[in-house]
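Regression test case RT-17, inverse folding.

Input:
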């Protein structure tokens, strides 16, 4: 007679090898845990990232979770690293693209409405958690903000060398652009949205970029 464990459906990372059924790859298993953790973080903040919750959301076991990530902090670092690329894309490899359009591309100003809502929700959760869970803020800086700024600074340095913008410190220029653009996406508890329509916010950000570029473009 089959036992209770025999009747349970196999979980991610523990799938029994049966003829014709491929084993779940390590890459797919990690991706499933990252996706589960992202959803939990957006919905409930860092406090929602427990081993039980992440494993259940990924339809996996806690053992397979620890095989993929040594700790919840390591998992959250992977979540932030993935989100960082969505916040700031890799700069375009097109020197003919106008600076305003290149910056709009890097900062994902033309993403769809669902992605925009998700990005705002991630930022909201991050801001609300930064005092209660300092380790989450540290991970966001180390694995999200700093790498994104370095990518942007590297691209700006190329634009300086090409004579497209004035010769200023590229890291400081990257900080300026990130402060300028992300200020319109910040969530302040208890406040109302300055730009209730995403199209209005996107146009305002583009105006900020154009205004900044008028002071940066080489004559």
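Golden output:
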């Amino acid at each position: 007679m089959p036992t209770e464990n025999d009747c349970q459906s196999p979980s991610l990372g523990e799938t029994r090898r049966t003829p014709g059924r491929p084993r779940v790859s390590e890459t797919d298993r990690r991706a499933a845990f990252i996706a589960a953790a992202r959803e939990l973080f957006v919905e409930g903040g860092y406090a929602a990232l427990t081993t039980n919750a992440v494993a259940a959301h990924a339809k996996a076991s806690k053992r397979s979770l620890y095989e993929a990530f040594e700790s919840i902090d390591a998992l959250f670092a992977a979540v932030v690293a993935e989100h960082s690329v969505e916040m700031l894309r890799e700069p375009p490899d097109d020197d003919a693209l106008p600076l305003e359009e290149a910056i709009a591309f890097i900062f994902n100003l033309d993403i769809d409405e669902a992605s925009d809502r998700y990005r705002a929700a991630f930022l909201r959760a991050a801001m609300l958690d930064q005092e209660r869970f300092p380790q989450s803020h540290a991970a966001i800086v180390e694995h999200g903000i700093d790498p994104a700024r370095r990518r942007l600074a590297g691209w700006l340095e190329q634009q300086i060398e090409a004579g497209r913008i004035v010769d200023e410190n590229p890291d400081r220029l990257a900080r300026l652009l990130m402060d300028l653009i992300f200020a319109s996406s910040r969530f302040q508890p208890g406040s109302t949205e300055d730009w209730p329509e995403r199209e209005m916010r996107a146009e305002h950000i583009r105006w900020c970029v154009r205004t900044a570029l008028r002071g940066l473009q080489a004559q």
